[in-house]
Amino acid sequence: MMTLNLRAKLVVSAGLVGLISVAGTGAAFADQSVRGEGIATAKLAPITESVIVEIRSEGDGPVKVKPVLRGGGKTFAWVNSVGPWAGTVFQEQESKPVIAARVTAPGPWSIVVKPLARAPKVTRGINSQVIQLKKRASGTLIKKFTFQGQGLFKVFPISAKGMSGFSLIDQAGPFTGKAYLPPGTKYVSVVATGPWQMN
Fold first, then answer.
1. Of 25, 37, 178, 198, which shows the fewest CB atoms inside 10 Å?
2. What is the reported pLDDT for 30?
3. 30 and 127 housed in the same domain
4. Structural domain of residue 7, as residue ranges?
5. Per-residue pLDDT tens for 98-129?
6. Is the separation of the CB atoms in 9 and 36 below 8 Å?
7. Are residues 124 and 110 in the same domain?
């Protein structure tokens, strides 16, 4: 299920874990996971809808994970940080399916693709995380965010149908301030390396 880079030691663990109905899309979605070690391209079952991607890298050193589109095309990295690293990121539905992930990591890593509806209803975390509000915002919702890390801190609203909006917060270093979540927001994507909190 995975292609081998000469510098990588791979352990294949791709499987399906039950069918789950994704709220707002009416589509059935099956979790899939892959794991490996070092530099590799991990093949994925085509991702054709908005999802969350859980990524873990256990080694010390730079870690970069970038999605690959069928037929090629530019994409934003899911993770570009230092290890060890663990968190979840948002992958919006693309015009082409995501079919793989290119991984550069110093040690063992894992990738788990989950439906957006599985995002936890939490208000704090460490590193990037996609979270779910208790209910969809019927009007503009004001939330206070605190970030205690040294890297970039971004906050994106996501609708119940899995469409992301423009960044509401885009800062470097420690931050305390408000974000105005637009009507229809159901999920929030927090991009961070370090502890953060939403009130």
1. 178
2. 62
3. no
4. 2-117
5. 999 999 999 999 999 999 999 999 999 999 99
6. yes
7. no
